[in-house]
Each structure stands twice: as C-alpha cells, then as structure tokens.
Write a structure and sequence with these properties.
With about 400 residues, this protein is an alpha+beta fold. It is built from eight helices and eleven strands. This is histidine kinase.
C-alpha cells in the first residue's frame, strides 16, 4: 500500500510540478497558434493593401468590382484604418461606431483605435503614384480570444482545483472528527465499569478500620476522582463543552500540582503569572487540564525525565483580550522541519506511543476553546516552548 499521508509533501510537490508543466504546455501551444493566426491575418491585410492599390491603378471596371467584392469586402473580421502619408484617418473598416455619432466623436474613436493599432502591428504601405497611404490594423476578435483563452482556462482549472482541494480537506477532517468522537465515546464507555468498581473499593477501604489514617487511601481517592474527570473528558469529545470564566492561574496550578506528584522528582516545575492572581479566562476545566497534562508529559518525555518545566501566564493582544500560557521545557528541542508535524495525529518520536497527545491538545484548544496552540520557540539541545492562547 502506498504511504500517501506520510509522503504527502512530496506528492503535493509532484502534483504542483505536473500542473505547472501542463499549464506551461497549454500556454506555449496556444502562443504558437496565435503566432500562426497572426501571420495569416497580416498576409490577409497585405493582400488587402495590394488589392486596394491594384484597384486604384486598374482601368477595368470589372477588375475593380472583382477586387472590391472578393478582397476588400471579404475582410469582415480584422479592424482596419486607412490613413494618408501623415497618418490622418481617411477610412475605416470593421470598427463598431455608434449610430448618429458626430464627426468629432467619430474622429476621436478612430484616433484612439489608431493608437492601439500602432502598438500592435507596423503599418502596411500602399504606394501608388505621387501619394502614399498606410493601412493600420489590429488583431481580430477571434485572435484576441485565442490569445487570452489559455489564461482563462488556467484560471478556471485553478478555481476548480482549489474547490476540490478544500472539499477533500473538509471531507478528510470530517472523517477524522468522526474517528475521534467514536474512539472517545468508546473509551469513556469502557472506563465506566472498572471505574465504578474502583469507587466501591475506595469507599470500602475508607470505611474499614484497618486502613484508617492511611495516606495511600487518600491518594487512591485522588486517582479515582481523576479517573472520573478523565471519563468526563472523553465523554465530552464530540459535544460542545461549556466554557466558564475560571481563575486561570489556579486552574493551571491545580493541573501542574496533580502531575508533579506523579512524575519523576528530577523534574522541577514552576508556575508564574504576570497579571493579578484572580484573572479569569473562559475554559472548560477538565478539558483545559487535559491540555496542560499532555503538553507537560510530552515535555517530560523530551527531557527523558530530568530537567525543568516553566509555566508563565501573561496578557496578550492589543487590548489584553487574551491570556497566553507559555510552557517551556529544557528538552532536546524540535527540528524546524517538524514544528508543524508534532500536532499531526500519529506523529511521535517515541518507540511506544500513539502520537495523539499534542494533536488532541490542539483540537481541544482550537476547536472547543476558539484559541490557539502552537510552538512559540524551539532550539535543538536547549528546549521547546509551547504557547496556549485563550480568550479572556
């Protein structure tokens, strides 16, 4: 099976190159046809000039009638203007003029057309006797259409290609969303039965005299409550969560505090805020804590269980309408070529892992909180900083 998604960048490049080659071939071939047709039209105008000169020189009325009908009047498509030696307009053909137009207005239109003709083609001399005349002409409507046809065609193809691309992207995202929702609902369902059993065991141990004042029972209770939150998180996937004004500093500290007691003691955590401690932000607490945990767990893996994670909260935006949560680690960093890939489902650098943590975190922040999650800074060997942007 061809790994389409893993090679999508290369495939996109190949498709773009092929499209450019097709477009270039279309333009080149059309230009060849335009050149040939342009030469044919010039030959027709040259014949037109020779016929005009012959008709003036001829003494036979029959010859004059033949040339007038078969050569002069036969030109029904190419706009032509006849001038004297000083390029004063004498006559015109195939140039649309409004009815009942004044001579002044007619002269202005013909002079404007004459200027266009001078830019397109050099005139053809009609030399007879002591006087000289010039025939100016421009491309026929057919030739003009053929000249611009490939560009119109390419524009239409580009529009349809963009529509197809966005339709495919939308369809793919919709399919991914259905997979996410189905997986989340099934996970919540599977967690329900063992969680109910654990809750019963916790209540039994808490009531038993043999386990009075045992710290392990209280820690077990915390984990059971945490499992309840996790189950609620999974059950909320696919539905619109309720966002409330919450103390963002306290919510962040609670998420870090729970995680800090369950990871290596060689990882140092710090949480600081550059705004008042009671500053609110609109969040869904269970989902937001999930985001913080996923980012921090990813950082801990990058540091191989040893280093520091600094969390700093600050205002962002012109009117301080947003809250920025920067999570900086001292891990191995992310290559510049992979900064966007870290949020793709399935991307992971670990031997064991599904690569869903950051993808899920980004989906929660951007789809459910209308915020942003991105890599603000990363340097190989020094660490990475993720930024979460929330609305106040």
């Amino acid at each position: 099976m061809i790994p389409i998604y893993s090679k999508k960048t290369r495939l996109k490049l190949v498709i773009i190159v092929i499209a450019l080659l097709i477009g270039a071939a279309t333009v080149i071939y059309s230009n060849i046809l335009v050149s040939k047709l342009s030469e044919i039209e010039r030959q027709r105008i040259a014949l037109y000039a020779r016929g005009l000169r012959f008709m003036i020189d001829s003494e036979s009325d029959d010859n004059k009638v033949f040339i007038q009908e078969e050569i002069i009047d036969a030109n029904k498509t190419i706009p032509v203007i006849l001038t004297d030696g000083d390029e004063n307009v004498q006559d015109s053909k195939n140039i649309p003029l409004p009815k009942n137009i004044s001579e002044k207005k007619k002269r202005q239109i013909l002079e404007r057309e004459l200027a266009i003709m001078k830019e397109q083609h050099s005139p053809i001399l009609v030399d007879y006797g002591p006087s000289k005349n010039y025939i100016f002409y421009k491309d026929s409507a057919l030739l003009s259409q053929l000249r611009y046809y490939p560009y119109v065609q390419l524009t239409v193809i580009a529009c349809f290609s963009l529509m197809a691309y966005f339709a495919f992207s939308y369809s793919r995202k919709a399919e991914q969303n259905r997979v996410w929702v189905g997986l989340a609902k099934e996970t919540a369902h599977q967690l329900g039965t063992p969680l109910s059993s654990l809750m019963a065991w916790y209540e039994y141990l808490k009531a038993s005299p043999n386990f009075q004042n045992e710290p392990i029972v209280e820690e077990l209770g915390k984990d059971v409550r945490r499992l309840e939150i996790i189950t609620e998180r999974f059950s909320n996937i696919g539905s619109v969560p309720t966002l409330r004004d919450e103390n963002i500093l306290r919510v962040t500290e609670n998420a870090i505090s729970y995680l800090q007691n369950r990871v290596s003691k060689k990882v140092a955590f710090s949480v600081k805020a550059d705004f008042p401690s009671d500053t609110p932000a609109k969040v869904n607490i269970p989902l937001f804590e999930w985001v913080i945990e996923n980012i921090c767990k990813n950082a801990i893996d990058a540091m191989e269980g040893k280093g520091s994670i600094d969390v700093r909260l600050s205002f962002a935006g012109k009117n301080k309408n947003n809250v920025a949560i920067d999570i900086k680690d001292t891990g191995k960093g992310i290559p510049k070529s992979k900064l966007n890939d870290v949020f793709l489902p399935g991307y992971t650098t670990k031997k064991r892992g599904w690569g869903l943590g950051l993808a899920l975190a980004k989906r929660i922040i951007e789809n459910y909180h209308q915020g942003r999650l991105y890599v603000k800074w990363s340097e190989l060997g020094k660490g990475t900083m993720f930024r979460v942007m929330l609305n106040r």
